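REQUEST ID: PR-0412
SUBMITTED BY: lab tech R.K.
PRIORITY: routine
TASK: structure prediction, single protein chain
INPUT:
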Amino acid sequence: MNAASSIFQSSTFGFAGILPNGYTSAVMSGQAVAGVFAAVASLLSQVASSSVHGEQSPITDSAYGYFSLACVVLILCLASVFLLSKMPFVDHYLQQTSVQVLRQKQQKVVDASLQTRVIVRPSYLAIMRKVVWYAVSVYLVFTVTISLFPAVISQVVSSAPNPSHSSWTGVYYSTLVCFLMFNVADLTGRYITHWVQVGSGRRSLLLMTALRCLFIPAFLFCNVQVKGERGIPTYSHLPEYDIIPIFLVALFGISNGYLGSVAMVTAPQKVREDEKETASTIMAFFLSGGLFSGGVLSFLWTFLVNPS
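STATUS: complete
OUTPUT:
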């Protein structure tokens, strides 16, 4: 499933790279909307399952409803992709890209015959050199994000004296703070790039993505639920105020959405028209690599919090 998701994601970014610049940003925003939609569905499912105590049927029904809704969304997405490929607007840019590639091939043949030399079509490596800074940036963004979200952030509990006595601090705290707030902040960060793209230079972008590594110790020293006697000592925690993890999650989500979108949108602008699809595919590959690396690191951070 993950392999199929990566292939679909890479193809989507490659497809968006052929279209005008705003469409790559639209794909990034669409992913964030899906995250918010999933978080809201999870919250509603949780409310439905907890509305009737001591019965298994509401829990089962809410689970069926949650995953049935996901299947419906996937079917709608598949139909949308099919209809998108048939639109005259999209067909225009697909034909335009094909014509440009054909003209370049013909020109290279003419140059080779006139100059008695062979001109090699730019390779993946040549395109990679043009977007390497942005590729590394998007890799770092999602490595840091997935290493903490949701493995570590979901273990942050309320600092209330008896969190289990309140629905906010006991039942819905993790769902609201970890999942819903992060996805809303992520969506906000991605939408900001429609109007402002401060720090889109390759070095400044890489610097800002590297600074996000500071979120790792910040979240590790929040009020994380420790299940054993070992783990990060209590005295090293940040002050136990709920506003601190809430602020960190909001900033974490906004920076993820903003920096990730800036990298994905700017990279295709640094190459020729016929290279944009390949550049977008390379960026999607590094994005997927960041997801994988972040998933591996999440085991390490979880072990540091709960080694037992």
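NOTES: Residues 276-305 form the longest helix (30 residues).
REVIEWED BY: pending
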